[in-house]
Please model this.
Amino acid sequence: MEEVDVERSTVEEVEVVVAHSERATLRVGEVFLKIDADRTRTDVEVQAMALAPVPTPEILWRRPPVLALAALPGTALGRLGEPSAASPAAWAAAGAAVRKLHEAPLPPWPGRSLDEIAAHLDGECEWLIANGVLPTDLVTRNRQVAEAALRPWTPVFTHGDLQITHVFVEGDQVTGVLDWSEAARGDALYDLASLTLGHEERLGDVLAGYGAGVDLDVIRGWWSLRSLRAIRWLIGHGFDPSSPGCEVDVLRARM
Model:
């Protein structure tokens, strides 16, 4: 019996990081296992990490549909709906890393077109109102704010899903950026808006590292647009966009 207990103590626990009907991420010790039924997303992630000029996780092995990645040192920059303990310098370092990415050569694959994004947004707004998910005036106001983002842009190498949980820092340095499956050619300001969604007070710190040339109205437009587009998906996959500090609060802030 004693021998069995010793053996059991060496087995790593399996932590479910995120799981829904499209994909799941598990952590076993210092290894992350990403399971995705859509091989295209994993192909993009592997290619993007190879091209990105910023720190990314080490790929340990790949056996579709599983991708094994080494854990990054440090901790996530923060979490949506919670105050970030990261320093202003860490946020500025994140901004500098994003600038470096945006100045890199474009990836060989395209991103979503402006027309596709606008059509998706209008469809989501109609669904939110028709199903009584949000008040009509809240949706209408944020659709107006989102219009600032719907303008032509010069494509850059974007991460495409630059949530604060995807940026890891240690001290005041960025140690790595996770989850590149949405990487593509896109609007630089979308990445900046994604990084600061729900943490608008940190935008100044990010821009201190990123540099000049940022239209704040466009950032606000992307905050509204990203939140409006996300709500149906979040509800359908078991997440609550009305939690404090999350997407619904982001929309309310525009009122």
The first helix runs from residue 2 to 9. The chain has a mean pLDDT of 93. Residues 114 and 150 are 7 Å apart (CA to CA).
